[in-house]
């Protein structure tokens, strides 16, 4: 086992003492970096970038060469799972991800199987192994997956959606069919994340991007229920250390207490809730990750530092905070503003850990 030179992230996720608050960013390997754009151009298209482990490793490590980040996150996409299920993922200019085949009937669901993580998704596992080797203990590697509900929205809609009419129509009119789809997705995500852990991921995160589109009742039945099942089925120790699990529901601030009951180690918080309120509600049951508005990075360096201080003060003294944005970084952010952000977190957080 390679000894970690910087394990702040893992300790913070388990609410253990750290010297400064660890920080990483959702989408930290992405289009705001000129070196990422160059590598993507070399790959030719997004999915080739994802499916080529050496290139996925290259872009995963790019932000760590620029910034003093406390974690790397696997470069991949949440839609690798439905693609491996045979739905034919492609990206259309100006429209985002699309599928050649939608899931809309019992026959469609019956045709879905659980992909072999070391078969159809071997390229993801090879990327994890390659990244771990190249990191050589520098910082931990985070693996991830989309939640069953979020994956289902893309599979039933055939791509992105503004009103979720098709997937919610299935949920309301054919709830058992929706449960059948979510069941196979929960089994798939469990196997996928466990394979990432076996390949070397040292923490994992479940992105429930569209859970916030549901009512409280439907969120608990069609989203949280399946995430809890996944958490229950994950390997929680590898290489002699606990593997922390982070749940993130965008727009899910109304359900933090329920999320904390799943057995996860940490909750991602978007920018619509103060961390002080989130901490009051969940106590010391879980760590909190977040939650600066990504648009703050468009501001001046002075204002970015002020926003960092505001978030740190909101969480307050003590352990169990991983600094992050409330969602992914925007593609037009100035990379130098990111440096101000990362450095400010480390500099300004030290007094909160004494």
Write the SSE topology.
Blueprint: H1 8-13, H2 34-43, H3 46-51, H4 53-66, E1 72-73, H5 80-87, E2 89-92, E3 96-99, H6 106-110, H7 122-135, E4 141-146, H8 148-157, H9 165-173, H10 175-199, E5 203-208, H11 216-233, E6 237-238, E7 241-242, E8 245-249, H12 256-260, E9 266-268, H13 275-282, E10 287-289, H14 301-315, E11 321-322, H15 335-349
Parallel strand pairs: 1-4, 4-5, 5-8, 8-9, 9-10, 10-11
Antiparallel strand pairs: 2-3, 6-7
Helix pairs in contact: 2-4, 4-7, 8-9, 8-10, 9-10, 10-11, 13-14, 14-15
Characterization of the model:
By secondary structure, this protein is of the alpha/beta class. It has a single domain (31-282), classed as TIM Barrel (Alpha-Beta Barrel), CATH 3.20.20.210. 47% of the residues lie in helices and 11% in strands. The chain contains 15 helices and 11 strands. The strands form 3 sheets. It has a 7-stranded parallel β-sheet. The chain has a two-stranded antiparallel ribbon with strand order 2-3. Helix 2 (34-43) runs antiparallel to helix 4 and helix 13 packs parallel to helix 14. The model has no long low-confidence stretch (mean pLDDT 96).
């Amino acid at each position: 086992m390679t000894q970690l030179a910087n394990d702040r992230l893992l300790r913070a996720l388990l609410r253990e003492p750290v010297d400064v608050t660890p920080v990483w960013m959702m989408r930290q390997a992405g289009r705001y970096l000129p070196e990422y754009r160059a590598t993507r151009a070399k790959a030719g298209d997004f999915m080739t970038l994802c499916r080529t482990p050496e290139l996925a490793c290259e872009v995963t490590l790019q932000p760590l060469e620029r910034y003093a980040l406390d974690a790397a996150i696997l470069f991949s996409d949440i839609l690798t799972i439905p693609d491996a299920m045979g739905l034919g993922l492609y990206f259309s200019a100006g429209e985002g991800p699309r599928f050649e085949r939608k899931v809309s009937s019992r026959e469609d669901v019956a045709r879905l199987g659980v992909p072999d993580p070391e078969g159809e998704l071997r390229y993801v596992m090879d990327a994890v192994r390659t990244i771990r080797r190249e990191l050589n203990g520098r910082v931990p590697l985070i693996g991830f997956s989309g939640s069953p509900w979020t994956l289902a929205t893309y599979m039933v809609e055939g791509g992105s959606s503004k009103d979720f009419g098709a997937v919610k129509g299935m949920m309301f009119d054919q709830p058992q069919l929706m449960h059948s789809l979510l069941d196979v997705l929960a089994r798939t995500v469990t196997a996928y994340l466990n394979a990432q852990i076996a390949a070397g991921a040292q923490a994992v995160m479940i992105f429930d991007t569209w859970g916030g589109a549901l009512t409280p009742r439907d969120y608990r039945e069609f989203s949280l229920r399946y995430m809890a099942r996944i958490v229950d089925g994950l390997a929680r120790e590898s290489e002699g250390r606990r593997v922390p699990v982070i749940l993130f529901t965008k727009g899910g601030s109304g359900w933090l207490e329920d999320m904390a009951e799943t057995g996860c180690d940490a909750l991602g918080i978007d920018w619509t809730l103060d961390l002080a309120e989130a901490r009051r509600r969940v106590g010391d049951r879980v760590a909190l990750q977040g939650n600066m508005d990504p648009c703050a990075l468009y501001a001046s360096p002075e204002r970015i530092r002020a926003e960092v201080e505001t978030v740190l003060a909101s969480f307050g003294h003590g352990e169990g905070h991983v600094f992050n944005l409330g969602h992914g970084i925007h593609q037009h952010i100035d990379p130098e503003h990111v440096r101000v952000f990362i450095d400010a977190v480390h500099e300004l957080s030290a007094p909160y850990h004494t």
